[in-house]
């Protein structure tokens, strides 16, 4: 079983011989064609055909990473991207600005929730449940912008819109079970909800440590596993799955819902215009629909200038026109668990996965 599953793992992700400044493996070293869900296509070819509530052909999980709530931190220094990596100079300027704020320990402007009402309003209007992943940091930590103890009204707004609250792990959390535990407790105490879903900040992820750290902390699912440098299928899958640990030759009991499309990837990392970003978005949606998969769509709450807002609304309307099952991350994970699809995927890939790379 182990050797067959290893055929679906990109060795570069385990060895991490090439990483960017956030310790992320860029898609340039991935042997898989990121725009093709080849592993999910293989599953369908072997008879796997998941069904969704209401007879829907595929599922959509909309989510928002809440990085920023205070508007005074939004005007950050401009940065450029080279091969999917931010320029060191721009990052240094941003970090110096953050350091000044952390040193003062004071808020410089009034609390302005960036576009949270806009998202909640759209989702409530169309009865589309979404998942909001909140940072749970303390003053002095990198990218601290708001304290979860002070945003009870925002948690209530998410709940009233039918949304889910999840943990958005900080910069160090992806490689530390203890840090995840600290952030999880802080957020659970603040929002009054048991957390089951996770996505790490900046999509920082380590195949060797992140899933195990989440298992230690009792998370039901994760949805960090996507490529920040490009939308697409990081390991060729658009179906949730149990990760395989190549070191212990065993499966990890944390459901991974692979991330397909992040708002910033096409324009900021790939450096393509909005017209081409839209074409790519529609193409990926169709490929997910063709294999009865799950289209995970991440849109940050502070990525909402006039053009970005228009793109998001257009994207939601397009998805609605295709009549998928809209669900939170937790609902997706529960569905795959209860329908035994995760075990079915394990069986198929364990019995005959030779010749495919993911």
Describe this structure in words.
The chain is of the alpha/beta class and 358 residues long. 39% of the residues lie in helices and 13% in strands. The chain has 13 helices and 13 strands. The protein has helices at 2-6, 11-15, 38-45, 88-104, 116-126, 152-160, 177-191, 210-216, 264-269, 274-290, 306-321, 329-338, 341-352; strands at 59-66, 81-82, 85-86, 130-135, 164-169, 197-200, 221-222, 244-245, 250-251, 255-256, 261-262, 294-298, 325-326. The strands form three sheets. Strands 1, 4, 5, 6, 7, 10, 11, 12 and 13 form a nine-stranded parallel sheet that branches. Strands 2-3 form a two-stranded antiparallel sheet. Strands 8-9 form a two-stranded antiparallel sheet. A hairpin with a 2-residue loop joins strand 2 and strand 3. The chain is globular and about 50 Å long. Mean pLDDT is 85; it is low at 73-95, 98-112 and 353-358.
Largest sheet: 9 strands, parallel
Question: What fraction of the residues are assigned to beta strands by DSSP?
Answer: 5-15%
Number of strands: 13
On the 0 to 100 scale, the average pLDDT is: 85
Quaternary organisation of the protein chains: single chain
